Amino acid sequence: MSVASEAHGRACAKLILSGEHSIVAGQPALAIPIPLYTHAHVHFEAGGSPGFFVRLKNFNQAAQLMGAELAALGAQKHQLWQQSQKNVLDNPFDLVWLTLWQFQQWLPLAEGHYAIEIDGHGLIGRGLGSSAAVVISLIRALLKLVEVPLADDALLTLATRIEHYVHGRSSGLDPAVLLHETPLWVERTPTGLHTEPFVATIPPFHLIDTGEPLSRTGECVAAVRQRFPAHHPIWPAFGDTTRMVRTALQQQDDPTLRDALCTNHVLLRKIGVVPDAVNGLIAILNRHGAAKISGAGAIRGQAAGVVIHFGDPLPETVLSRHNATLISLKA
After folding, report:
1. Per-residue pLDDT, 1
2. Is residue 202 part of a domain?
3. Per-residue confidence (pLDDT) for residue 152, from 0 to 100
4. pTM, whole model, 2 decimals?
5. How is residue 157 annotated by DSSP?
């Protein structure tokens, strides 16, 4: 097997315009990629001491595992996930270890020393698909390293399988958007996730960071599902709203788009994932357009990740009073 000495993989971030939470209940979702990137750099040395050395640049931390240690940790975490169907990560390195372990189940890596650096945008836990970005960027780098192609559907299956360790059960939406890097209309079917490219002009928008939620995505999704099971009438209302967003974008109908996004916010508020502090900020934003959270939101605390806003920007002083900051979208 031919092995290169250096490889790089990259993955973008994502936003859900409409359909977070409701996709789990069988309703459609509309998601778009955004230019906030996570990079994975892999250096392989055949004659080096065997094992995996990982540096997480955003955390300014490093860790190392030997091959046997990686195999043991992967098997242990996988068994724990099978038993609990919940998040099994104890630290940021576990996602990297489990990605390496799952990759090795499909294609064993050559023995040697692997130095891996993960460098992301730093907005972790904000609803931007940060864990999926780590997974996909690292898999892409490893595929280049071993010079073996992997079809998109197989890559999506592998990435979604790894995402289960983070969210308990991943819908597959995040890795799908990051893999295709195009706006997607997403629906769950009896045979799995169905995606199709969504062709429309997305109006200019602003991204606002309200802070990292105290509750993780899997915890948030589980709490909502317990209170609002799949047959609850609120979910068709979400689906209707998502279809309204799609139609408004296709017809470039800004007033209808803003109405739909405001309705979406009201529904998200009803299922309990928009904290009071964020709701107060969105009320101000809605005087200047339309805004909603993008992602799982939060069931505890006053931060809810990212808010997307279509409309005139608020002054930085107003945002700071709500413990929020504007995110700059740069490649």
Report:
1. 45
2. no
3. 83
4. 0.90
5. H
